[in-house]
Design brief:
With 67 residues, the protein is mainly α. Helix content is 46%, strand content 7%. The radius of gyration is 11 Å and the shape is globular.
Length: 67
Amino acid sequence: MYVCLCHGVTDRAIRQAAQAGACSLAELAQTLRVATCCGKCADIAKTLLEAADRTAPAAPVRLASIG
């Protein structure tokens, strides 16, 4: 599902970013541009990131640019 309509970011992309090491909304904003335009997606993006963190492996890989 699309989370950020302004930049076309999906829930899958957010989960992939979390698996790649994203730990905060700021990191998602930097790599995926989530919540950098209208901001309406910030809450759901943060919720998805937190949910992904609970299911992530113990030693995540450093964040790479995902797009």
